[in-house]
Write a structure and sequence with these properties.
This protein is mostly helical. The protein has a domain of about 120 residues. Helix 3 packs across helix 4, helix 4 packs parallel to helix 7 and helix 5 packs antiparallel against helix 7. The protein is globular. About 30% of the residues are buried.
């Protein structure tokens, strides 16, 4: 795959499967154990989402990152596209940093510590960008305004359905993967 070409569906799915496997192994690592309980709870979502943004927009998998692409996701994509509470964004740099160190220790990437240090240096930048409405994408802006309470409502409304006729969202979101 050329760096300017998007991944094929098969390449994308293979990368998701690989990151899910690595994420599962990460939970048994010293790097994971050094995270706070809150960071550990957020780790699966952070790693999976970060990888999807990195690979989907930058065409770079999280297990073969470069500093520029990591910075783009930290500064621009993650804060613009992810709708969550501020304490979630406070976990992103630490979790991704720990995961990069884990990949480096395993030998999956050569410069895990260097990349981790760079991402961790962007901690406040991620939190500040996520809190600034000027950085939000359209969907996040609508969600954060309180007009819509989940992506199902966004999809249905964009298809012309009356929001009052839509079913209520579930109380508990489904678990993604089985870490």
């Amino acid at each position: 795959m050329d760096e300017t070409d998007p991944p094929s569906d098969e390449q994308y799915q293979a990368s998701l499967d690989r990151i899910e496997r690595l994420g599962s192994e990460f939970t048994d690592s010293q790097q994971f154990k050094r995270l706070t309980t809150h960071q550990q709870r957020e780790a699966q979502f952070v790693i999976g989402t970060f990888h999807e943004l990195l690979y989907g927009y930058e065409y770079v998998p999280l297990d073969d990152p470069d500093e520029h692409s990591l910075e783009t996701v930290c500064r621009d994509l993650y804060p613009a596209k992810i709708s969550s509470e501020p304490d979630h964004f406070e976990t992103v740099a630490s979790v991704i940093g720990a995961f990069l160190r884990f990949l480096g220790k395993r030998g999956d990437i050569e410069n895990g510590d260097q990349l981790a240090t760079h991402v961790e240096s962007l901690d406040e930048t991620i939190v500040d960008a996520a809190a600034d409405p000027d950085n939000w994408g359209m969907a996040k802006s609508l969600f954060m305004s309180g007009e819509f309470d989940d992506a199902t409502h966004l999809d249905a409304v964009s298809e012309g359905e009356d929001p009052s006729t839509l079913p209520e969202p579930p109380l508990d979101p489904p678990r993604l993967g089985a870490w």
